[in-house]
Amino acid sequence: MTGTLAAVAAAGALAACAATNAPAYPPPAPPMAPPHPGRYIQRTMSLLAASTPAHRNTVRILFYGQSITRQEWWLDVVAGLRQRFPHADIVAENLAIGGFASQKLVKTTPRDIRVFYPDLVVFHVYGAHDKYEEIIAFIRRNTTAEIAMQTDHFGAKADPSRPDEGWDAFMNGEVLPRVARTYGCELIDVRAGWRRHLLDNKLEPQALLSDGVHLNERGCELMARLVSSGLVCRAAAPGGEAEGPVRTFSGDSLSFTNGVMKLAFAGNRVTAIAAPHAGKAGSARVLIDGNPPSAFPALYAFTRANAGPGVDWPWSVSAPVVISSRTKPVEEDWVITVVTGDAACFTFDVRGSKTGPDGAGVSTQDFVSTSGRIAIAAEDWWLETGKGRPSPIAPGYELRFASILLGTDVYVPPAVTDTAHEIETVLASGLDNGPHTLELVAESGGSVPLKAIRVYSPPK
């Protein structure tokens, strides 16, 4: 961890916005706008703004980072977007991990980003600057997501009346602007707005904090306002900017000839948009370059073990933060069962719902299952619990997760009960980002109602 703020953030990873009895302060002054506000998030903002009661665009927004991002301000940002754009179907998720600076978050990024595949990532993390850039580079290379980066707010020991020095100046004044320029990211200057609010209201940084770095209730309110102010929809985007790397094919290009629809495309993700239909709809086999999606090892991912609503993952469950494979997985459920030992060193068995018993391992050694479908590096077990909580590791303890296919071998058109909403089915996600051929081969049972095919092509 680098810098005072990063160290404090890791120590207080799970702090929540705390209510205070201090007097209310006026709302922050309007932020000083960058030269081209919203320039790098216009596909997302245009989708939101173009939504109508008759056509509700689906927009996927991921909040990612560590404990600061987990605090409740993100819910206010989402609520504000839903109020501003009431006709958009906003799917928002927060996968931030408390205490995970960039050196740790870089390990979880590939799974989290690939599985959710957002339209917009709202991102903030402390830690090493090179790992920060690796995270941004991965998102840019592997998805079509737009990225809104945040500069740091002020910690308790910072002096807003003086120019930034040392690490704060290096990250906020040099690294983050350079990374934003290099990868075409929006940079929301939280730090400038925070400084202005503190100085205008003659506040010490601690007035907005619950500890040395985490936000109290007023801090959460300010963060929500500053981030929301950066989510700007420009009055008129240049031609093609709203579409960008995502293309939607419809009409004659989707016609079936002798029961086969064929579409050449370039990208790493392809989805189907269902059309309304009367009567029984026919299904279709999905082929990418002549093979079903399940034949591509890169299209599989592993879910977070023992994750769920309200779970402080991985701190409260002692799970491996990275699970990979040495051979092609299949879609199935998995369970790791502790046999002997405790958090210092334990043995475990692995079983798959289709694979069956698949070997045994020791937590202090790298593990590859008998089938090769499960691989866990010893360094990827997260066995710290934080807050003095006892470890759950004990004989009989189970960790459950799944290997999932980011796609489907058979497209079964869903029922469309409201034509205003799009129902998008992922056919294949995680392909090499290049030219491919999609084929939908109609099976018996009726015509295949298809409104559109959407292709996602990350920049190269």
Characterize this entry briefly.
The protein has helices at about 5-10, 40-50, 65-70, 75-85, 100-115, 130-140, 165-185, 190-200, 215-230, and strands at about 60-65, 90-95, 120-125, 145-150, 185-190, 245-250, 260-275, 285-290, 300, 330-340, 345-350, 355-360, 365-370, 375, 400-405, 410, 425-440, 450-455. It has about 450 residues and is of the alpha+beta class.
Sum up the structure in keywords:
460 residues; Jelly Rolls; alpha+beta; six-stranded antiparallel beta sheet; 3 domains; disordered N terminus; Rossmann fold; 26% strand
CATH superfamily of the largest domain: SGNH hydrolase
Low-confidence stretches: 1-23, 237-242
Instruction: Determine the mean pLDDT.
Output: 91
User: Which shape, going by the Cα principal axes?
Assistant: globular
Major pleated sheet = 6 strands, antiparallel
- Percentage beta strand: 25-35%
Number of domains: 3
Distance between the termini: 31 Å
Helix/strand/pairing class, anyone? Answer: alpha+beta
CATH fold-level assignment of the largest domain: Rossmann fold
The helix/strand series, from N terminus to C terminus, equals HHEHHEHEHEHEHHEEEEEEEEEEEEE
The tally of strands reads 18
Share of residues in helices: 10-25%
Oligomer: single chain
C-alpha Rg (nearest Å): 24 Å
Going across the biggest sheet, name each strand in turn.
Answer: 6-18-7-17-8-16
CATH class of the largest domain: Alpha Beta
User: How many separate helices?
Assistant: 9
Based on the coordinates given, report the CATH architecture of the largest domain.
3-Layer(aba) Sandwich
